[in-house]
Design a protein that fits this description.
145 residues, alpha/beta, four-stranded parallel β-sheet
Length: 145
Amino acid sequence: MNQVLLIDANNLSHRAHWSRRGLSSRGRPTSVLAGTLSMLATIARKMPDTPMVWVWDGGGTTWRHKLLAKRGTYKGGRRTTNQADYELVEQQMPVLRSFLKDVMGFRNVLIPGVEADDVIGVLSQALPQHVVIYSGGRDFFQLVS
């Protein structure tokens, strides 16, 4: 089958951290790195020979932040994350992105000011291949066809 796998990289990285929380090597946190690579191995076994694209949140203020700032409802339903855990995840992201791209050869997509969900939504409609989305986010239910 002619398909491509779009990975919600931030979502996967945060889940990886919680599955390996507290893991470190030489005083540096490695929960995201170890957890993501473990998940990648599972994905690769289930979908061999399927091209993978890692799509990252671009950071900064997005159009949703601006639109919903007055109501204070953007991501309002989420549980609050311990700031220290959030910083541990963010600290490992550049290393993970570099490893996935430079060592493993995966495509990484990151557009400043645009969330991965939005990029995945556009790519899922624009790519000629059958698209499979890997994410724990519920935002993608609207794309199921």
